[in-house]
Amino acid sequence: xxxxxxxRAAAGLVGVDEQTISRWFHRGASEARGLxxxxxxxxxxxESEFMQSATETLQAAATTNPKHVQWLLxxxxxxxxxxxxxxxxx
Length: 90
Hints:
The chain is mainly α. Helices cover about 70% and strands about 0% of the residues.
């Protein structure tokens, strides 16, 4: 997930059913401690690390093409920046 895999793909790689992953995740969200909580925290951390990496990549790409940051702003702050896509800006 740290590399951007969806939970379904990660589940398939480790041989666990997608619904099982979902149950573990939601159970961990509601528990204060224990294995399920650790799983919940680890999944959140991995997904957050991917988001950070992807955002940094977009920001770097924006130095040569500002459309990348326009896209990011429209997704991150939709109430402030109208949705932008290459098709609507041409």
